[in-house]
Specification:
- The chain has about 250 residues and is an alpha+beta fold.
- The chain folds into two domains: about 60 residues, Winged helix-like DNA-binding domain superfamily/Winged helix DNA-binding domain (Arc Repressor Mutant, subunit A, Orthogonal Bundle); about 160 residues, Chorismate lyase.
- It is built from nine helices and eleven strands.
- The strands form three sheets. The protein has a six-stranded antiparallel β-sheet with strand order 5-6-7-10-9-8, sandwiched between helices. Strands 1-3-2 form a three-stranded antiparallel β-sheet.
- Strand 9 and strand 10 form a beta hairpin.
- Helix 1 packs across helix 3 and helix 2 crosses helix 3.
- The relative contact order is 0.13.
């Protein structure tokens, strides 16, 4: 079988580095703690020690670990573990993100077929691939660093009431439109899904294209039943926790 040269192959060492990076940044491997030996990691991941060495070298370059000959490999003491906010609802998610700085990126018209979620947009707005939709992109900043990527898709007539300055000041798209128009929201649906980052999002966030993020996808309708918007929120898995309250009757 001929290899497809256009298909990017993710090296094993990069995948293993990602796995260890996630454990470090999520606090599963605590600052100062000793990491398993190269031999143990090779056995655990089912790869060669050379592959493990390459993965650890990448983490060392990122100052996530330090290696001490004769003593072992340790998680850097200087790592700051950010406590993940715990979300209990879409409203809770929106309110907590509004407390952080928002960096607006762009407001632009695209043909539906040029978007990353053309199928969803066609179905929700009842459009064709040749119709226009407005894409609004912005980044959530935490301690001066990009943490999450947000994008909204809506009709051009509604998006015309939104400016980049207002996004920076008011943060929430719905709030801006409520202030500038007479829209009344109706119902909505939200979905959580783990997805690898597309190249453009990875570039904005300084991550790898194969990094998995949690996408919260929200569909909102106006009170008259017309489709209002689709919103995608991409957050790193190590900084995302969703709380579900469970009652004993749920198991009956």
């Amino acid at each position: 079988m001929r290899e497809n040269k256009n298909k990017e192959v993710i090296p094993l060492y990069s995948r293993i580095a990602y796995s260890l990076r996630h454990k470090i940044l999520s606090g599963q491997l605590e600052p100062g703690s000793k990491i398993s030996s190269e031999e143990q990691l090779a056995e655990f991941y089912g790869v060669s020690r050379i592959t493990i060495r390459m993965a650890l070298s990448h983490l060392e370059e990122e100052n996530l670990i330090s290696r001490n000959r004769g003593k072992g490999t340790f998680v850097s003491q200087s790592i700051t573990i950010h406590q993940s906010p715990i979300y209990k609802s879409v409203r809770d998610f929106v309110l907590k993100t509004q407390r952080s700085a928002i960096k607006p990126l762009s407001i632009k018209k695209l043909k539906v077929g040029e978007t990353r979620i053309a199928h969803d947009i066609r179905s929700f707005f009842n459009l064709s691939n040749e119709d226009e939709i407005v894409q609004i992109q912005r980044i959530l900043m935490v301690d001066g660093a990009p943490r999450a990527f947000f994008e909204n898709f809506m009709r051009p007539d509604l998006a015309s009431h939104i400016t980049l300055r207002e996004i920076s000041e008011k943060k929430a798209i719905v709030r801006i439109l409520k202030d500038n128009t007479r829209i009344k929201l109706g119902r909505g649906e939200g979905y959580l899904q783990a997805l690898p980052l597309d190249p453009d999002i990875a570039d904005f966030l300084g991550r790898q294209v194969f990094d998995y993020f949690i996408r919260t996808q929200v569909f909102l309708w106006l009170s008259n039943g017309d489709p209002f918007e689709i919103a995608n929120y991409f957050m790193p898995a190590e900084h995302f926790k969703y709380k579900i309250d469970i009652d004993s009757t749920d198991f009956e």
